[in-house]
Amino acid sequence: MARTAVRPTGRGTTTASTPTAHAPQESTAATSWGPVDQPAVASAIAPPAVTGRVAQTAVRIQRSTPAVSRSLGAMPAPDPARRRAEALRADLDDHSYRYYVLDDPSVSDAEFDLLMRELAALEAEHPDLLVPDSPTQRAGYAPSATFAEVTHDVRMLSLDNAFDRVELDAWFERITKLVPDPIRFVGEPKLDGLAMSLLYVDGRLVRGATRGDGVTGEDVTPNVLTITDVPRVLSGPGLPTRMEVRGEVFMPLDAFDALNRRQGEAGDRLFANPRNAAAGSLRQKDPKVTASRALSFFAYQVEVTDGAAPGGSHHEALEWMGERGLPVNPRIERLDTIDAVADFCVRMEEQRHALGYEIDGAVVKVDDLGQRRELGNTSKAPRWAVAYKFPPEEKTTLLRDIMVSIGRTGRATPFAVLEPVFVGGSTVGLATLHNQDEVARKNVRPGDTVIVRKAGDVIPEVVGPVLAKRPKGAKAWTFPSACPSCGGPLTRLDGEVDARCVNLDCPAQRVARIVFFAGRSSMDIEGLGEERVRQLVDAELLSDPADVYSLTVEQLLPLERMAQKSAENLVAGIEASKTRGLARVLVGLGIRHFGPTASQAAARAFGSLDRLQAATEEELAA
Q1: Please, are residues 204 and 242 in contact by the beta-carbon 8 Å criterion?
Q2: Which ranges in the chain are annotated with CATH 3.30.470.30?
Q3: Per CATH, is 80-137 categorized as 3.30.1250.10?
Q4: pLDDT reported for residue 589
Q5: Which of 190, 389, 442, 454 is catalytic?
């Protein structure tokens, strides 16, 4: 059976509704993307079916996407390897943006790692495909515009991964070829939180910053000061004049459970996992909100920029930090051999649910700082460290039904409705099935007992059925031919794995487009979430993103659960969004294959909507 439903993960979909067109009011507005009048802005941000003008603009941008990519370093070519590399870079950029900037991952860690490995393999096989801004060559993502930018004194790199003993041994063999002397290690639990840089001057905390893209991060000092584990003043002898401490901000499980209870009681959206909760809490505009979230911190590295280094080994540096008041994880161990390293990783996996905080692996580091300098770094990660990632926890439960959701681009995504089961630290009732080919490949049917896991310990997915428990007469599920929202045909284009509803007036798409436009990656309109958008569409106040800018307090007040203050706050949030910048507007258009990176390039090149709309293909390609 297929019917309209809210998608369990991803960028959001809606239940069916049938709004009517609502014309924007005539008004003018000053925006950061150019001195254009309100109707012109409305026209430019409307979905393609609403106005011919924006349809032409969208076509020009879509057709010129490879040309814009070329200006960023990608060289389009007709061969499949080049096209695949371009697609992988675009996908990985989008996934990184959602993980690092929005704190709302759209794929699991495992899926992200597979895409990254595929791109790395293509670049290794075809060196001409390697470009400087490739996701394989950098860590993190550019910082959000919400906070002031900070340039790190020393780059904050990410870590390469090992997923089993074979890959762990391969890492060991690589580094022993580069360092002739015996190597000893330090093993640490890999906390599932947010990397943090703390700058101390004369022993006093003066700045806290996120990793960002590794070179530039976000200044979140007021929020860091609310974390009780982070000392404002260090004590003890030998403090450097200027010192940068690296560590992880995380949310303990009891704090996470308490936060979600409060969210549920207030009718607010629940956090999917402690990592998302920690990242979202640290990046609040109001430090009081951060203070209420009970975040914690462990230091794991010191970068001295003015003064003598604390010891010649990593374990000595950790002890030195602990003696001066910085919290250090007590489960860190010194390890003499690669066998001891492997044993440590196994023990961490066995103990992970008894720690009081979430970990998704173990980090192994070369202990001797001199050997670290010999090994050096790649452009993305140190050679002297590796993250051993745990396999996801699996449970069995009943598959009640398979349903289909429709996204803002018309993508039809099947998902499983499950008997709720506790797995990976939370209760799961819905799990993605990705696409119709995956349903067929996994051979799952309503009524099956299925194996469920959280891929990357984040996104629930169905692994497959327990065939021995399949009920007699269980029928194979058939992918619907009609959209469950509008009844139009679901079409699958050649070369694509997804079926799509091609009706741009589809109610589910219409609402999802507005939700995406108002979301954090686009115009970041506070108070305009999915439930509120559905309410406004049902009230015939919204039918496309352009209508957002015609909303008034008087129109909002008659709505259920809409008080005077709420209406004023929403209108204020809409007004504030006019300063977001052209790149955010282009992202909000939701044009396929034209994500944040291409939008930023187009905004830098043209500066305003008027210039972009008037641009020729040749100008876009320049």
Answers
A1: no
A2: 149-378
A3: no
A4: 87
A5: 190
Which of 138-147, 305-314, 424-433, 479-488 has maximum average pLDDT? 479-488
**CB-based contacts of 313, cutoff 8 Å, min separation 6:** 367, 368, 369
* Cα–Cα distance measured from residue 510 to residue 35, given in angstroms and rounded to the nearest whole number: 28
CATH 1.10.287.610 residue spans of the chain: 80-137
pLDDT at 55: 38
Instruction: Kindly indicate the confidence band of residue 222, based on its pLDDT and cuts at 50, 70 and 90.
Output: very high
In the chain, CATH 2.40.50.140 covers 394-497
Beta bridge mates, 145? none
Domain 394-497: assigned CATH number? 2.40.50.140
Q: Which H helix or E strand runs over 299?
A: strand 296-306
- In sequence order, the β-bridge partners of residue 465 are 450
Q: What are residue 265's phi and psi, to 5 degrees?
A: -65, -30
What pLDDT is stored for residue 62 in this prediction? 34
Q: Measured between alpha carbons, how far is 299 from 480 in angstroms, rounded to an integer? A: 52
Strand order in the sheet with 185-191: 161-162, 385-389, 359-366, 185-191, 333-335
CATH superfamily of 149-378: DNA ligase/mRNA capping enzyme (3.30.470.30)
What pLDDT was estimated at residue 74? 38
Give the rounded distance of the alpha carbon of 238 from its chain centre. Answer: 40
Q: Any idea which of 49-53, 121-125, 201-205, 436-440 has the lowest mean pLDDT?
A: 49-53
Q: How confident is the model at residue 313 (pLDDT cuts 50, 70, 90)?
A: very high
Which H or E run includes 207? strand 204-210
pLDDT at residue 509 tops 80: yes
Local structure of residue 143 (DSSP, 8 states) = P
Look at residue 458 and give its three-state secondary structure: coil
Contacts of 449 (CB under 8 A, 6+ apart): 396, 397, 398, 399, 465, 466, 469, 470
Task: Please report which residue ranges of 126-265 form alpha helices under DSSP H.
Answer: 165-178, 221-224, 253-265
190 is a catalytic site residue: yes
Confidence of residue 109 (pLDDT cuts 50, 70, 90): low
What CA–CA distance (Å, rounded) separates 481 from 501?
Answer: 10
Instruction: Record the tokens describing residue 40, joined without a space.
Output: 């012109």
Structure tokens at 501: 């509803």
CATH for 38-70+502-621, options being 1.10.150.20, 3.40.630.10, 3.40.440.10, 2.60.40.10 = 1.10.150.20
Q: pLDDT higher for 425 or 344?
A: 344
Question: Is residue 597 predicted with pLDDT exceeding 60?
Answer: yes
